[in-house]
Amino acid sequence: MEIIIRDAEEGDVGKILEIINYEILNSTVVYDYNERTYEFQLNWLRQKKKDGMPVIVAESKIGVIGYGTFGIFRPFDGYRFSVEHSIYVDKEYRAHGMGKQLLQELITLAKKNGFHTMIAGVDASNERSIEFHKKFGFKEIGTFKEVGFKFDRWLDLLFLQLLLK
C-alpha cells in the first residue's frame, strides 16, 4: 500500500475526527470519554497550526488513514524544548507501516525545529505501543499508577522518552 505523509488540511478534519472518536469510544489510548465534535476538531487543528505545531496525515489512494501530531510537553517556559506526540491509525489499516512513517516524520520535524526531547504517554497495558516506541529508541522513564479511569477501571500511564540528538 503506497502511503503519502503530508501536512493535514482542514479538509482532513472529518477523517481525523472519525479516527479519534473511535479511539475515545473503544480504547484506552486516549483517556477521554465523550466523542469530539467537528467544530472542536477543526479548532484543534487551527490552534495547532497557529502554535506552529505539526499535524500530519498518512494518506493512501482511499484517503486519510492515520494522523500524528506533537505539542509542547507542558505549558511552562522551561519545557519549550520538549514535545509530547500522538499517533492514531484507522482500525482497518493498522500493522501496515503507517504508524512507523508518521512517527519517523514527527521525529524528523522535531529535530528540524530544534526540540531536544520527544515524550510518549502510553497506557501501560498497551504493550504494542510500548514495543513500537522502543523500536525507535524511546526508553521507559516511569509509570504513574492509577492516574486515569475509563471503562470502570483504573489505568496506569507509562512515559517513554527519546532524546533528539
Automatic annotation (TrEMBL):
Superkingdom of origin: Bacteria
N-acetyltransferase domain ranges (all copies): 3-161
UniProtKB keywords: Acyltransferase, Transferase
CDD domains from the UniProt entry: NAT_SF
Pfam families on file: Acetyltransf_1
GO molecular function: acyltransferase activity, transferring groups other than amino-acyl groups
Protein name, as recorded: N-acetyltransferase family protein
